[in-house]
User: What shape does this take?
Amino acid sequence: METMIKIIAVFTLLMVMVGFISWLERKILGRMQVRHGPMRVGWHGIFQPIADGIKLLTKELVIPAGADKQLFLMAPVISLIFAVTPFAVIPWGSGQGYITDINIGLVLILALSSLGTFGIVIGGWSSNSKYSVLGAMRAVALMLSYELPLILSLVGVVMLTGSFRLTEIVSAQAQQGLWFVAIQPVAFVCYLLAGTAETQRIPFDMLEDEGSLVNGFFTEYSGMGFSLFVMAEYINIILIGAISAVVFLGGWQRPFPSVEFLAFLDVVPAAGWFLLKVFLFVFLVIWFRGTLPRVRYDQLMYFGWKILLPLTLLSILLTGLYKVLDFQHNLIFYYLITFILSLFCVTYCSKHFYQEETTLKEVRVGI
Amino acid sequence: MLIVGRIFRPNRPYPEKLEAYECGIASEGNAWENMGHRYYVYAMLFLAFDVEVLFLLPWALVFDQLGLFAFIEMVLFILVLVIGLAYTWAKGALEWRY
Assistant: This one.
C-alpha cells in the first residue's frame, strides 16, 4: 500500500516536473535570445504546459496509410514506460525516500533506460517514412556509441563504493566527506556529455535534425503520440540528472556534508537538495541548447568512439590507481596525474580525429 | 493516455493526409530499404565493448577485496580491447564514409 502511494507520488512529481521543464526550457531559451518566451497563460506563462497538454490531447492522431498500425501506436508507449520505470530505484530523499531499494539498482537503471531505444526504433521504422527510418537508424547508432562511455564512467564509482545500491553510493559519499565528483572529475565530465547525447539533446541531436530530417524518428507522429515521445525525452533528461546527482553529486546531501559550520544549510530538506542537483543538470542541458550548434554526424560518432571512450577507460584506470596506491591522503598528486594523463589522452586522440583530410563534399553524412 | 485522447480528438482521415510526409511531394518507393553499412560496423564494435562492460561491472563490485592482482589482470584485459580499438581505428573502420 505504502509502495503504491509512493509510485503514484513519484509519477505525479515526474509529470509536474516534465511540464515545469518544458516551460523552463522555453523561458530560458527566450531569455538567452533576448525575448520573453511564453507570457500569456498565467503568471509569466507558467500554465503554458497545461494549455499545451490540452491542445495536444484534442489533436487528431494521424496514422499514415503505409504504417504498421500496432507498432506505430505501441512505440511512444514503450518509450515512455522505459523512461519512467528506472525511477523505481532512485532515492529522492534520505531515509525511505525511494520506491524500492534493490542491490543492483545502478545496473537496473542502465538496462531499463537503454531499452528506451526500442521505442525510438520501432517508432521510426513503423512510420514507413524515409525521414523516420533515417532518424531511427541515426538514433540507434548514437545510443549505442554513447552508451559505452555512459556505463564506463559509472564503473569507477562502483569501484569506489563496492555496491550497485544507490543508497549505499550516497552514504559512501557522506562517509568520505567528499562527493565522487571530486575523486572522478574526468568520469563526471564524460558522464555529462554522454548523458546529453543519450537524451538526444542539442549538440548531439542529429537524429531529429530539422535541417535534414524534418523531425527524425517522430516525423509522422501527431497529437498524443507526439507528446508521449516528448514526455519520454524530458523524463530521460530528469533521469540522467538524477543519476548524476546520486552518483557524483552526493544525492540528497547538502554540499560538504562533513563540514560542521555549514550545518545551517540543512534547513533545505533532503529532497530539496536532490531536486536542486537534478535541475542543475536540466539547466546545463538547456544552456547547451541555447549556445551550441549541432555537430556533424561523422564528428558525433568520432567524438563518442575516439575521445569519450578512451577517456572513460583512462578514468577507470585512474580510479584503480587511486585505490591500489592509496591516494586518499595526497589528493593533489592524484589530481596532477589525472590532469596530465587526460590532457595527453585528449590531445593524442583528437590529433587522429580525422584520419585523412576530409572535405565537406566527401563526407556524406548519416545516410 | 492514448486511449483517453481517443475520446477527445477528431478522427477524419483522408488519403492525402495519410501519406508519409515528404515536404509535400508525393512519396516514391518504400522506406523499408537497405541502409548504409556504416551503422553495422558500429553495432559490431558496440557488441565487443558491451561484453567487456559486462565483465567489468562484477569486477568493479568486488574490487576492494581482490586487490592489486585483480587490478593488473583487468588492466591487461582492457589493454587487449584497447589494442582492438586502436586496430579498427588505424584500419579506418571508424571513418564515416563510403
Summary: Chain A has two domains: 1-58, 62-351. The two ends of chain A are 51 Å apart (CA to CA).
